[in-house]
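Lab notebook: predicted structure, single chain.

Context: the supervisor wants predicted structures on file for every construct in the current expression panel, including those that have not yet been purified. This is the next one on the list. No modifications to the sequence; it matches the entry in the shared construct table.
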Amino acid sequence: MTTNEKIKHQIDSNPIILYMKGNAQFPQCGFSSHAVNLLKECGVTNFMTVNVLEDPEIRQGIKELSNWPTIPQLYVKGEFIGGSDIMTEMHASGELQALVQFARTLG
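Prediction complete. Output recorded below exactly as produced.
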């Protein structure tokens, strides 16, 4: 399985997935920590995280797939949403809460 195939499988297999530095229990950068906290504030308790620090190919591959240069990166129902800055804006407007609630109801 190529790196791109692995990433696409992860995204397709998980309704909410966050590519980040560290994991939800131990984020290893402030932006990743903020992204996790935003999801938790939206009531999301069960979401997949991928620690990009453990796999340089995933770290580079996810940036190329999304055409987004930074980590963290959030995907919901297979769609790239954005990084912590976009998540913050969406949270402030209520869009993030609605999006993750919709994803959770679809399973």
